[in-house]
Design a protein that fits this description.
Blueprint (H helix, E strand, L loop, with lengths): L1 H19 L27 E5 L1 H4 L2 H10 L4 E5 L11 H5 L12 H7 L18 H7 L3
Parallel strand pairs: 1-2
Amino acid sequence: MKHDLKRRQALLSVNYLAAIGGSGQILLSTIFKFQGSKEPIPNSEDWIVLVDECHRTQEKDLGAFLQATLPDARYFGFTGTPIKKADKDTYARFSEPGETYLDKYGIDDAVRDGATVPILYEGRKTEWSIDETEIDIQHPA
């Protein structure tokens, strides 16, 4: 109950800030603040929504509540792991038709820029065996 009150207060704050207008406003929120919201705010076409980890929250209920609150906003999604499945499609939600990415920055780019070190992996086959008799002696059933 206390959680629902806080969520309603957060949505009232968003609606209030939208109503008083003004340019250059920046609002920072979590997706959970919009849970249960179904009423669009005025002038949602003036909003830009930046969604981090967009592959996790924008499908199903949480994304639907945000979309209902800001139906005409421009959405930009950030993710390192986009999903393309029948029930979840990060590309369809955040890309223009026929496009997949606005921009890509992969591991190779990060290594080239010096933002990260190369990831090195060396597979090894380990020789090992399990002595089931010894295990049964030490750990009887």
